[in-house]
Structures are given as C-alpha cells and as structure tokens.
From TrEMBL:
Subcellular localization: Cell membrane
Top-level lineage group: Bacteria
Record keywords: Membrane, Transmembrane, Transmembrane helix
Protein name: MFS family permease
Amino acid sequence: MTKQPKAVWAVAFSSMIAFMGIGLVSPILPAITEQLGATATQTSLLFTSYLVITGVAMFFTSFISSRIGARRTLMTGLAIIVVASFGAGASGTIEGIIAFRAVWGLGNAMFISTALSTIISESRGSTGAAVILYEAALGLGIAVGPLVGGLLGSIAWQAPFYGASTLMALAFILLAVMMRGPEARNAATSLPAPFKALANPTLLAVAMVALFYNIGFFVIMSFTAYPLHFTAMGIGLVFTGWGLGLAITSVFGAPMLTRRFKRTHVLVGALTLLSLTLVGFALLINSPGALVAMMVLAGLELGIMNTVLTEVVMDATDLPRSVASSSYSGIRFLGGAISPPLAAALASAFTMATPYLMGAASVAVAAVLLASCSRLLAHANEHRPEPVAGFEVEAEAEPVSAGDDRNP
C-alpha cells in the first residue's frame, strides 16, 4: 500500500478530490431550495443529472481511453469538471445548475472509470490492495466533500462549486506533473465492447446487484439532509462522519472480513445489515440524533460493500478491467440516478420515512439477487490470475508514459 509508483498516488489523490464532488452539494440542498425557490424534486435533479450522464458516459470511457491514453482521458475529465463546477457556481437558476451538473457528470465518468483501471494496472501488489486504495480515496472524498460543502456553503451556496473547481484544477496540475512522459501506442477497445460485456452473466449479475444497492446508497446521500433540519455546516459534519466510517471500513474492515469469509457471504451480510439500517432511518425519522447515529452506522456498512463489490467485479471475469469497469460502473451509476427524484417524489406523496423504506426494499432485492447468484460468482471468492486483454482488443497495450506508468 505504501510502496506504490508516484502515478498511482497521483491518481488516488485526484480520485479523492473527484469523489468530493458527489457529496459536495448535500449540505447546500436546503439553501438552494430556499434561495432559488426550487422544489425538493428539482434539487434532487442535481444528483440525477450528474449520475445519469456519468452512468451513460461510463460505457464509452474504455473506448476513449484506449485511443487517447489513460493520462489524457484522466486530464480531459478533470478539465471538464473544472469548467462545469465553476459554471454551476456562476449560474443563477436551478435549471442552469442542473445543466452544469450534467456536464460535470461527463467529466466524472471519464475520470473515475479510467482511474480505477489505472490504479489496478499500475499498482504493486494484488488487485485487492489496489481496490482498497481506490475505495479509500472514494471514502475520504465522500467524507471531505460534505465538510467542504458545509464550510463554504455557510458563506454562500455558490462557494462550494467554486471550491470544487479550484480543487479539481489542482488535481489537474498534479497529474500533469506526476504522469509526465510521451504517449505510447494504446490497446484499442471497440465502441460496443462494454455493452457486449454485459452478455457475460457474471458481470451482469454483479452490475444488477450494484444497481439495486446504489438506490439505497443514494437515498441516504441525496435525501438525509432534509429530515436532519441542520444548518449547512451541521449537515456537512454529519456527512463527514458518514464518509469517515465508509473510508475506515473500506481500508480495514473489508480486508479483515474477506480473509475470514467468502466475498459473496460478506456482501450478503453487509446488504442485509444495510437494509435493516434503512428501516431504522424510517422508524427514527423524527429524531435527528438517532438519524446521525444511523448515518455513521450506514457509512461503516457502505465501506465494506464498496470495497468487496469492486473486488468481485474486477476478479469475477476474464474481461479486460477497463471494459469491466466501464460496464459495471455504467449500470451502477444509473441505479444511483434513479434514487434522488424517486425519494423526493415518495416523500412528497407519502411521508419523510417512505424513501428509506424504498431504499431498504431495493437493498434487500440486491441481497436476494446476490445470494441466488452465489454459484455464478464462485470464482470471485478465489484469487484469480490477471485477466488476459483479449476481449474486443485490437492491439497490445503499451506503456502510457515513461517510467512506471502503463495503460490499463
């Protein structure tokens, strides 16, 4: 973990900053609703527009990165996010912010999918160690994002967007400095490869589990700011505790459990506990203190889920990891896109507890689906050899830049 090439650390740090963008808006949702005269459903579209475009674009990232190189794909994604986050802050309407968040999602897709495959291919050690590093970056980003959003949001709702633009510009400079070197010939992945990959029953099963799981995940992330009734700073601190719990179990909890139990068993257990926790949210909806406790508990469970599920999708098939990552991530983020507007609509039609019950049911479906596919996912419980780059690849992969950097 500590003896990785500099390119791996650069991508991991940039990933942390990129993931800050997901939770950055959580603390300022009530302020945007109030100051721009928006409805809860409209503000939920700040997540949905971002996640829909992220999910759709994920299917094309392996095609793009295989032609222009991992480094250029990463830096193009960061550049798009810099422009989009600044544009969101400069926008004076909810419709404008929604549009810029969609553009933000495009940059996010180019960066995140390529970052995962880059860290795995460039890191020293096992796939599991690389995934832990990536998920640690995810957890820390999710933890720090709401805190930054709360701190800056207490000044003005626009400030978190400008802050994100500045941080992403710093990440761009970091990658430009630490991933230097001439671009080399890349493995060319065909455009339909990620769609064809879903014909693989193992990958499709894991992707569908991720879709239902992410519905529950984003109920917590996109909706919990409303029943808390805290200030932007208070909401930011709660989400920071949630993200820290996620980061801790990503790095320490998941490896400890997978050393003792099969990965599929760990996932079924974590999904079951998460479903019960979402029921707890619904039952304790009128107690802000209890909701804070539920947030921390959910963060601990989500950290285990994210790390182990990513390990499974990377090891369960012999597909090239850039292709598997594109397919899996596309389905996963589309599941997240469904959740925010559905949660807002259910809360408006019924009660504030209803979105959590919906999330609990969705996560329970994921647990049942995973348990029913245990034989199909048997290989994911073993340490598999590195996959052969033979799926829709037109040329052998070459180093993406000088030194330690190699194209995923």
